[in-house]
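A reminder from the course coordinator: this example appears on the midterm review sheet, so study it carefully.

Given structure:
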């Protein structure tokens, strides 16, 4: 039954709006984190419908994906990400997770080798989390 629901979700058009639960699952963050980011980053503006339900546009999801990468993979603080988004919003969205070196000048002050070690640990933690989720099913 759960697989059928996942297939239906996976069949959604890339241009379709997403609910907060879909975005949270896709980005692997809790829903309350998305609500918190919404309060900290004015650029994230999901549509709100009856009862306060949030619907995220594809560009909102991309922005949230980049915010997540800056915070979790690249070691930025909330204020650091706000600065990146304020100074060059287009670059912050377009830049991929694989190129932290282009944003190093605006980083949290870590040395390049420290940043690389943290990124390596984060990748390992994400892999371990996925393994634990799979075994828990």
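Designed residues:
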């Amino acid at each position: 039954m759960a697989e059928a629901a996942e297939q239906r979700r996976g069949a959604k058009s890339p241009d379709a709006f997403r609910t907060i639960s879909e975005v949270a699952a896709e980005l692997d963050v809790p829903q309350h984190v998305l609500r918190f980011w919404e309060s900290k980053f004015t650029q994230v503006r999901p549509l709100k419908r009856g009862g306060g339900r949030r619907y995220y546009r594809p560009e909102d999801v991309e922005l949230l994906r980049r915010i997540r990468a800056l915070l979790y993979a690249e070691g930025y603080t909330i204020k650091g990400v706000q600065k990146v988004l304020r100074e060059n919003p287009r670059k912050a969205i377009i830049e991929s997770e694989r190129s932290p070196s282009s944003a190093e000048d605006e980083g949290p002050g870590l040395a390049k080798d420290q940043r690389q070690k943290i990124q390596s640990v984060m990748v390992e933690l994400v892999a371990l989390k996925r393994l634990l989720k799979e075994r828990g099913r």
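The radius of gyration is 16 Å. The chain has a mean pLDDT of 78.
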